[in-house]
Amino acid sequence: MSLFRPNRIALLGVPVEIGASQLGTLMGPDAMRTAGLKALLEELGFAVEDHGNLAPPKPASEDAPPGNAKHYRDIQAYVQALSARAYELSTSGALPIFIGGDHSLSMGSVNGVARHWHAQGRELFVLWLDAHADYNTPHTTITGNMHGMSAAFLCGEPGLDGLLGDEPRASITPDHLDLFGIRSIDKLEKELVKQRKVSLIDMRQIDEFGVGVLIRRVIDRVKARNGVLHVSLDVDFLDPITAPGVGTMVQGGATYREAHLIMELLHDSGLLCSLDVVELNPFLDERGRTARVMVELVGSLFGQQITDRPTPTNAILPAE
After folding, report:
1. Is 236 among the residues known to form the active site?
2. Which fold has domain 8-301?
């Protein structure tokens, strides 16, 4: 198995907010920058290129918008532009970090990344750290909000078939998606996830077995296929006590330390090829608290630690 450990990181802000019901996530990219994201990554030894914020053109597509997908045309513009940029950044050899913005951006970021890695003959797996499954389609959705359709779109579900226009669609299969930390799912969405046999780890399983055991299972599965891993980190994966700056707050999420352990184990794995950080809403935050937490988590994902320990970690406890 070949590890992917680049020394260059490409940051791209994606200030889309209309995929969600609560406005404010367009300020997320700049809040992450203000909280010191670039400086932290540089302290960890990376050459960081900040490509600013994506400004999509008006879409030229002429497909008929689905009847139950709000702001379809504007989100389509973002998705098409972002897919092309994600592919470009991935082929440059840098590891791209896409800073959102709501979770609808992942329909573009993951598609572009998947297109690159499929061309390299590597399987792309996606770890979806989120309170919600985001596996709705225009047929199953209750709200029509497109940030709740991202994972389904990436797995090739029908209903948004013209979203990418002329941009190539590079879907993953449902068995390459891991929904992790789920604690809110719609009825029809739940049925679809079950039909597709998507891996779903809810908070009950995390409470019973612990995040270490469960994340190692994901890592082992990706390694067994010589795959690479895209991580899509939604602020609402965390408990609102830790991260209040989010518009889709759901009680009972991951703790601060659980989230850091996940990031540390993912770093040790050497599988990470790209990252989304989404749904940060500074308008709802408390003095930048959530932005700082998210920057700290990204730091752990890229190797920040208290003591120098061998990588990867093993199950042997340190001597007393």
Report:
1. yes
2. Arginase; Chain A (3.40.800)
